[in-house]
Amino acid sequence: MQTNILGYPRIGSNRELKKANEAYWAGKISLEKLQLTARQLRRQNWETLHQAGINLIPSNDFSYYDQILDMCIMTGAIPARFKALKENLVNPGSPELYFAMARGYQKNGFDATAMEMTKWFDTNYHYLVPEFDASQHYSLLYNKCLEEFKEAATLGIHTKPVVIGPVSFLLLGKIKDEALQPAALLDKLLPVYNQLLQSLQQAGATWVQIDEPTLVLDLTPEQQDLFLQAYAQMRAAVPALKLLLTTYFGGLQDNTPLAVQLPVDALHIDLVRAPEQLDTILPLLPANVLLSIGVVNGRNIWKNNYEASLGLIQQAIDVIGKDRVLIATSCSLLHTPYDLDLETDEAVLTPQIKNWMAFAKQKVNEVIALRDIIAGNKVLLQANQATMQEKSTAAIIHKPAVKARLAALTDADATRKHPFAIRQQAQEAVLQLPLFPTTTIGSFPQTEDIRKLRADFKKGIISKEAYDTSIRKAVADSVQLQESLRLDVLVHGEFERNDMVEYFGEQLEGFVFTQNGWVQSYGSRCVKPPVIYGDVQRSVPMTVEWSSYAQSLTNKPMKGMLTGPVTILQWSFVRDDQPRAATTLQIALAIRDEVNDLEKAGINVIQVDEPAIREGLPLREADWPSYLEWAVKAFRVAVSGVADTTQIHTHMCYAEFNDIISNIAAMDADVITIETSRSQMELLEVFATFRYPYEIGPGVYDIHSPRVPTVQEMTELLEKAAQLLPARNIWVNPDCGLKTRKWPETEQALRNMVAAAHNMRVAA
Ligand code: GLN
Ligand code: ZN
């Protein structure tokens, strides 16, 4: 049986690409050095897959920054603002244009902002959004795909080039001219695709992988037609080249009839996300088409359950025969870390937990093992069964007390004692805040000193006492500054936190961290997500000490600061042995304990950040209601244990609220703070139309820039807000936390913000 890997991580097992890119951008290494690093990384990947015995080895899955940006350059889909730069480049072969599109360019008289970046489906990877306009002329500007195919060939490795399919490329982009119709745009792009495919056919490629992940989304009939148009044309252009059409991150569902009629040689489906689709697809698959079945999960870090995968593989073999089945990863392995063998510190990752895990390299071996088991190797199966068995009963995963508490959860646990109208009065009486109260979102500038302090403490260079003393000093200074600025609701500043999820993960049971489990987030940015392996529970208070210390320094209300259950889940690797909803509710109970303890310690205002609620939305709209139900419930479970007089805040970063406003309201948070300054308060309109009853803090200044906003512009924004919402409900705050800012601009901006609030009070 044949084996197929859709893509491999490219940052390097020690983040070599990140380091080389950043060194190149800083002018510290030459282009040749950067290219050498890239060649070495590609070679290592190909050799790893080749040595493992994989049949369909990907090429062109490498990228210096992003594979969609690569396609923009390959096809000449260059946004208009970069045209002048392109024409003036001394060396058109240099990556200057490429990196300029990725990162923006402000040099030699040019000034162009970077291309927009957005999340790749429901992953934490971000791609650059193609921009199409009527003035673009598409041509095969640079055939990276062919270059990399040939590069592998010179190493003696025959690869399967991977490209983003024309329809997904188009649908994932933005058409900037209304006059430009998708079908017409596709017509212009297809000759370039055809030329690209022909060049690969000529160079001796056997298979080409064409990624069309948009086939798992809700498509309009017009969008479905684009596929028919594209694949008929490409088929005609390269009759001899084998086309492998891949879909992943979900099931084909209503797009199944479309997918099976496209003239391709193989279809890849994701059986991790949508195992049930095998039943529908098998009988519909044309007799000349192979089926690549993604059974090894490319989205997590857990060992494959062979028995479950073998069931699916056998089912496929029974219907279409061994020769037509390819065993594959569910999607590219881009979303998993490199190599579990690099996790050598048993104090970080115990052998027991490590034995449950598989990173990219191990997942490749799993694909091979599944093939070998089908061929008769029963030893591999037995070893895997033993691990799965041990995991299913391991005491460090399964905690009866947590499960019992979850089972006993009632609606009352997810409901505040009284409705908001009553709570609002109670809170007004206790908090005694002025109209247009001012606050901040939580974090204050994370200076070099603060970062070093945390790092030194982690490394054991300084003692807990020394560390605590220094953090206390930072908290005290920030409280003093906030008082002098006359802010109304203060924060402690989050100086003790490295990251809003990691900080909690490190203190909760059921979480573990890796040494080297990096995955690419975008460009050279990598993240090392916490791993949730078992039942989650809070054994000790996590923030109470810092918040009560901060409260002891002031008579103003001090806002407690927590990360919400959905955000903690979204930004972690999640266990695969129970539904995400169950894991989230366990986290919610742990956060609830912290909320209740903060209240007991005299903290009357508590913010539970949920910036990831919107990004957790499933890919298909039909799945939204059930997700939103448990996501909102988890938030409510976390915050509903408190008295009416305790004010619950939540915070969300830039997001479209139009289609989920009723769910946002259902969170029943007394106050929500959101990012709005760049949209000129337009985001508030939906809150007004919905008659959102709760209090809202629309951000009045952009925290992404060091620029200090004037009193007047913030006053104007607040006046806009006051036209849309009752004055009684409006808070005044920045868009988000201030951790990436410097102190001088922060102080000045907050001073102006307080003045703007003052203007509003005088006018009211
Ligand atoms: N409380 C966090 C902070 O201020 C919120 C961060 C976020 O919304 N991403 O940094
Ligand atoms: Zn935010």
TrEMBL record:
Cofactor: record remark: Binds 2 Zn(2+) ions per subunit.
Any Pfam family: Meth_synt_2
Catalyzed reactions per annotation: 5-methyltetrahydropteroyltri-L-glutamate + L-homocysteine = tetrahydropteroyltri-L-glutamate + L-methionine
Binding site for 5-methyltetrahydropteroyltri-L-glutamate: 15-18, 119, 124, 525-526, 571, 615
Required cofactor(s): Zn(2+)
Active site: 704
Binding-site positions, Zn(2+): 651, 653, 675, 736
Boundaries of every Cobalamin-independent methionine synthase MetE C-terminal/archaeal domain copy: 436-758
Single GO term (MF): 5-methyltetrahydropteroyltriglutamate-homocysteine S-methyltransferase activity
Binding annotation for Zn(2+) 1: 651, 653, 675, 736
Every Cobalamin-independent methionine synthase MetE N-terminal domain range: 3-316
One BP term from GO: L-methionine biosynthetic process
Keywords associated with the record: Amino-acid biosynthesis, Metal-binding, Methionine biosynthesis, Methyltransferase, Repeat, Transferase, Zinc
Broad EC category: transferase
Pathway where it operates: Amino-acid biosynthesis; L-methionine biosynthesis via de novo pathway; L-methionine from L-homocysteine (MetE route): step 1/1
PANTHER family: 5-METHYLTETRAHYDROPTEROYLTRIGLUTAMATE--HOMOCYSTEINE METHYLTRANSFERASE
Family note: Belongs to the vitamin-B12 independent methionine synthase family.
Name the UniProt record assigns to this protein: 5-methyltetrahydropteroyltriglutamate--homocysteine methyltransferase
